[in-house]
Specification:
This protein is of the alpha/beta class. It contains 9 helices and 25 strands. Strand 19 (about 400-405) and strand 20 (about 410-420) form a beta hairpin. It is globular and about 75 Å long. Bound molecules: alpha-L-arabinofuranose (AHR).
Amino acid sequence: TPAEASLTLLTEAAGPRIEPTVYGHFVEHLGTGVYGGLWVGPQSRIPNTRGWRNDVLGALRRLKVPVIRWPGGCFADDYDWRDGIGAPSRRPVRLNKVWGNVPDDNRVGTHEFMDLAEQLGTEVYIAGNMGSMPPRAMAQWLEYMTSDSPSALANERRRNGRDKPWKVRYFGVGNESWGCGGHMRPEYAADLHRQYATFLRAPVVRVASGDGEGNERVTEVMMQMARDDMDAISLHHYTVPGPWEQKGLATGFDRQRWAKTLQEVTTGLEEHVAKTIAIMNRHDPAGRVALYVDEWGMWHDQEPGSNPGFLYQQNTLRDAMVGALTFNVFHRHTDRVKMANLAQMVNVLQALVLTDGPRMLLTPTYHLFDLYLPFQGATPLKLTLQSPRYTEGDISLPAVDVTAARAADGSTHLALVNLDPTRPASVRTGLQQAATGRVLTAPAMDSHNTFDRPGHVQPAPYAAHPGPQGLTLDLPPRSIVVVRLATP
Ligand code: AHR
């Protein structure tokens, strides 16, 4: 028998709109995240446009990619932007010391990345190097990209083939300053942030490096000492299904791990975000500084046989469930959460797309982003939900999670998640409207797509019609349902 839930949907907004950039992305020079996965070079036999794979870009276009963060991650604080400009054949080969110590021939640099962004019609979020380069290098990179003047840097850009300046809306001042970005104490990082941000004179959203380890002092000190020199602060939150040394594979887990993983989002991420916002509220009661969760996603053990430095992992229905619950958390915190970036786009961690030479597949996480498209720019709505519990061992969670939002065209959309892997749920709404959309579920908790079976997990059409008691939405076990309500 299905678990019974009851939902009351209100017409009042629950917060400011869900910025489209909450559905943002992250591409790092890491493994085959850039080289091979997105970039094959103009001479490749894999069909491409100026080096960028047509198949992958075609899939990404459908997701209306709002923003991409690049070039890292940890890589950003070991990156000299000058290595990636000028004639490709003359660019230096550097070792990617953070990720596998493999050579990076810098064939993808600023011009190529900006071309990718233009091909996808997306904003860019450039991550600058605060860890190992002087402030002048960071400031000069920004000038190189954005100046319309006759300055030497702007002219150098023109000589390198780009006349018009690019639009750089977001700029990260370092990354994980407490870790790979320099192992700094928060006080030192705050001072350094102020110094570097001072020289970023072009109009740009300055993003400070914030917490990523659940260390509240990082947010506290950064907000206290450097808030006037930032427009946003970052938060990193990875969902790790076990202890760091034994995260487990993306596939082949039991029900206990499933429950633990989902709990890590509904409780772990939710609390991390709420606590960070509470600190921000104390130091910035006017709400000027935004919170960017600019790295989130599942971090599993790498696939057997793959390079441990490449963070290549499979992606199952569980990853999509984590994504759905994550978006629902973000929908509840639109007062501060103005951007979020999945780690990462292709072949790295919780990827949207996996590639193998000329082949590619779309992961369940890709389908999740596709399902949630109507939420980009929509306004979250208030609701009350009475959910039955889902219990596994000592873990007890609400079985059903729901968010709702009104899109700019007036249509209302619901995102419903049934966390229970074995029991269906029925959500009574009392609404007198039909609901149509799609459902994402699969035969097993770890169902996933492979290159031989790329369509194994994909959304199916979903429809529900009001009965005598109004509209009831039936959710299969372990499912995500996104519907649009018919106009009453
Ligand atoms: O996304 C992989 C890595 O995780 C990033 O480079 C770093 O910022 C984080 O620790």
